[in-house]
Amino acid sequence: MNCKPQMEQNQDKAVQLAVRILQYARNELLVALRFMDMALCKLEYQAADVQSIASDGQRLYFQPHYVFQIYQAGSTELNHAYLHTLLHCIFYHPFVNREINPLLWDLACDIAVEGILAELNMKQLGSVQTLPRRKELMELQKEYGKLTAERLYKAFERDGLFEDEYLRLQKLFQVDDHAVWYRQEPPTVQAELSQQPAPALASAPADWQAISERVLVDLQTASQEWGERSASLLQNIAEVNRETYDYSDFLRKFAVLGEEMQVNDDEFDYIFYTYGLQLYENMPLIEPLEYKEVKKVRDFVIAIDTSGSVQGELVQKFVNKTYNILTQQNSFFSKINVHIIQCDAEIQEDHKITSQAEFEEYLKTMELQGFGGTDFRPVFAYVDDLIRQGAFSNLKGLIYFTDGYGTFPERKPDFEAAFVFVDDGLADDFELEPPPMPVWAIKLVLRPEEI
Q1: Which alpha helices (H) appear in 354-435, and where do they start and end?
Q2: E-assigned strands of 310-356?
Q3: pLDDT in tens, 191-211
Q4: Which residue from 185, 180, 24, 10 is spatially nearest to 95, judged by alpha carbons?
Q5: Rounded CA separation 248/322 (Å)
Q6: Is 319:366 a contact under the CB 8 Å cutoff?
């Protein structure tokens, strides 16, 4: 005998029916988007106190009455909402930085996802992309370029949005509930069927990273036609899976071997040393070696692109970052030979630094010069001249901080050369990789926050 009150029984049935409808929507999407099979099968269903549907990366939370209402309007509406929410997870949107502005981040994420759905133009989504939404997407693309959440967020934060403009865009692009992204605990569940302990969310970002990387590989291989159909889909997923670099590790490649006067503990035998002190009191049998071979920076070139397209503030941060890494790693010899060269289309300045104190003084008085075009050849020709003149005893390498848009030397130099780019996510023509470079050049792309 079932002693449940009738209201609870009805609620259970409503939840079960809503789950079946969501599963139907998932299956329709699975048939069309085989490359998203892992993503579509990842989320568990849970009825909860949300406005529509939502996901924190572990579960798909839904309001049963919302599911019935939207499904009654047409299955394509539900397919659209389902895929919209799923794309948020694939692009790591729910795993937000707590310091961001949630209103701007929510809007940027919704616009980015809707831009992708408009390009996919799937029959399973019907005509959910209304004319006003499509028109607005075209205007936003003209103004901001590629519609990724990170790019849009930075643009909104930089330019600002008036309240009426924000509300207008939110009304056009909001589909699901993002409140679960910012909650410490999962939302309140509804009905006994879904009253299961919420899974730990700690593994969600790692799980979705694996899924996202799998989707990217599929789009570049077996499901290439979908990547060609939606450039925004490929752009967004490649952007979030872009490899990040540790500039500190990168800089260590330019360390050089040299001798420095210090006790070499690795080659010193303390047994004979202490035995001699015991036998002859203050007379050790052996003396410690007064030098050891260490990897530190001695001869080094930092080239700075001072053309008009490079931001002065980022240049100064880059030089400061380089200095901090070298000093924190104790990477300086007591005597160094570092040249900091500023160049746009021609050499503007060469500041030679021979000690840590001189480097610190240069940082205090540093002024950028140039702001013309960009040509990398003068720096390499100038450094070649310095080598011929004997200005370096052992030049290991050159690091060139630039936006990459310039003329490269035709031949490989006799030293290692690395080009460090900064991708702020706003340049319209900055692709996922820097512009074409010579095969001998080392490339490193950093974000502003990594500098």
Answers
A1: 356-365, 377-388
A2: 332-343, 347-353
A3: 433 334 344 455 678 889 899
A4: 180
A5: 8
A6: yes
